[in-house]
Design brief:
This protein is mostly helical. Helix content is 62%, strand content 0%. It has a domain of 74 residues: Helix Hairpins. The protein starts with 20 loop residues before the first helix and ends in a 7-residue tail after the last helix. Bound molecules: magnesium ion.
Length: 122
């Protein structure tokens, strides 16, 4: 690990409740720099879709009822967790590449979606 890489071994910030999004973005940026990856928005957007397909693959052929019970299968949950992380890592890298502030983007889109009418809305 490079000397300037964020320390991800700190046990006190190993959960969502304890970790700032900015720290995760910095950890992804450090990983990209460490590996010498040259990212670009096109490849990152495609990678998000590709990893999303790998996540969906874990549910392929399951019934809706079986899919609702995946948390009871530790091996499958490990695969799901890994593919979800792949998607999220690419999302963080995409945000880094384009300078997207995730918090404000999510809140802005949630506000827009609150004003939308959804087909199955109460
Ligand atoms: Mg994957």
């Amino acid at each position: 690990m490079p000397a300037n890489a964020p320390d991800s071994s700190n046990k006190s910030d190993s959960t969502d409740a304890e970790t700032r999004l900015a720290k995760l973005k910095a950890e992804v940026a450090a990983f990209v720099a460490e590996k010498g990856f040259v990212d670009n928005p096109k490849d990152l957007s495609m990678s998000i879709a590709i990893e999303s397909a790998e996540l969906m693959e874990q549910f392929q052929w399951l019934t809706t009822e079986e899919a609702a019970r995946v948390t009871k299968d530790p091996d499958l949950m490990d695969k799901i967790r890994t593919e979800f992380a792949d998607v999220f890592i690419y999302c963080l890298g995409f945000a880094n590449e384009l300078g997207i502030d995730i918090t404000s983007a999510v809140r802005r889109t949630l506000a827009t979606n609150r004003r939308r009418h959804w087909p199955h809305e109460k």
